[in-house]
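Quick question, first post here. What does this chain look like in 3D?
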Amino acid sequence: MEGVLQRLRGLAEFSKLLQISIILRLASFTLLFSTSVLFLLVGLSSTIIKSITIIDVSALNSVDPILNAITKLRFGVWGVCTTR
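> Answer (accepted):
Ran it through. Tokens below.
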């Protein structure tokens, strides 16, 4: 009976190690894939395409000329660009 219990404990520990291994493999794959995509965007933006914009944020026009200086933000692969 004790041999069966020890075997079941060993299987439970193996199952936990297998789950941890799968989680680590998925996390490392996700990290490598996302960095590869970002490096691809930067490489294309620097040599082939003029600029790659990821997000455009526009503000409403205001009456105050000081607040009207920056009305658009562009988040791209090289950083943030502000325009009127």
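The mean pLDDT is 79.
The CA atoms of residues 43 and 49 lie 9 Å apart.
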